[in-house]
Specification:
175 residues, mainly alpha, 75% helix, elongated
């Protein structure tokens, strides 16, 4: 199935549902997006929003299925990037650590300019017991994105330590 168009009207309906959400009571938001899905069956954007609603409500098992359906329906662009981040994070919360790392690795490859994906991948690496790789990822994100003179001065050292930690994680370096 291919992603159905996100018309201005549908985008406005999605925004209304998102704007009205109450994180402490997600039931009305879930109901809103499920009803929207009945009017736009199989729409990747609506599937993603249903998944996000379940996710925010702490119903991760249900969220995962909607995220997967949204991606299968051809979700693309910035919405795909957001979906991959939420999907990978949800997998981590469900203790599906290796799957989470795989999702974030795919996301970083598809969307290399987004530090948030790398930060969440670091969380998943840490949860998977791969702390060396997690810290290496964090050091590299810092070197890439913190524009402070004292960080830039030690950028080469940060990158060298990041590489060393990744090599430790990969078993290339014996400690």
């Amino acid at each position: 199935m291919t992603e159905q168009e996100l018309t201005p009207e549908l985008a406005a309906e999605i925004e209304r549902g998102f704007a009205a959400r109450d994180r402490d009571d997600m039931a009305p938001t879930i109901a809103y997006f499920e009803e929207l899905l009945t009017r736009h069956p199989g729409n990747a954007h609506v599937l993603y929003e249903v998944g996000g609603s379940y996710d925010t409500a702490g119903r991760e098992d249900e969220a995962v299925a909607y995220y997967e359906q949204a991606m299968d329906a051809g979700l693309s662009g910035d919405t795909l990037r957001k979906c991959l981040l939420q999907y990978g994070s949800t997998l981590r919360n469900l203790e599906r650590y290796d799957e989470s790392v795989t999702v974030f690795t795919r996301a970083v490859e598809q969307f290399p300019g987004f530090a948030s994906l790398r930060l969440f991948r670091a969380l998943s690496l840490h949860a998977a017991g791969r702390s060396d790789a997690a810290v290496g990822e964090l050091l590299e994100v810092a070197a890439d994105h913190i524009d402070a003179a004292d960080v830039k001065r030690y950028e080469a050292a940060l990158r060298g330590n990041a590489e060393y930690l990744r090599d430790l994680d990969a078993g290339v370096v014996t400690a």
